[in-house]
Amino acid sequence: MRSNVVEAITGAIVLAVAAGFFYYAYSSSGTKVIHGYDLYANFDRIDGLVEGNDVKLSGVKIGDVKHIEIDTKTFLARVNITVDASIILPQDTSAQIASESLMGGKYIALVPGASEETLKPGQQITYTQSAISLEGLIGKYLFTNNGKEDTATEK
User: Fold this and answer.
1) Could you tell me which residues come within 8 angstroms of residue 42 by beta carbon, excluding any fewer than 6 positions away?
2) Which label site among 61, 97, 103, 117 has the fewest CB atoms less than 10 Å from its CB?
């Protein structure tokens, strides 16, 4: 009987420590729920961008990518984002898809403009810059003649 009580107490301690660990891991991970308003932007390419990626302003997370779909009329990628309600963006704000690092994920970087008018919930960010394909840049560099003529054909 005494060993059952010791085992029960040990199990309760293990569960309490595990719960504390999970709480610490969640609270220190930087994950937070953004309560704000929705905007959308259309991009030619969104290579590597997925739902849940960050939306940043000056490198600070102010939102999340909420939903990605294809606009069937323009065939552009329509990206819905949520922006923190305390951030009021000018109407000429631009959105660009940026990389965290060479091997890292993508995020949307917002660059505010100078307009006096502000974006309202549900409006479109009209100025966008699509993701840059690293493979395309490397291929262009490797297979471009760089303006040099082939010396083998001149002889």
Assistant:
1) 71, 74, 76, 77, 78, 79, 124, 128
2) 103
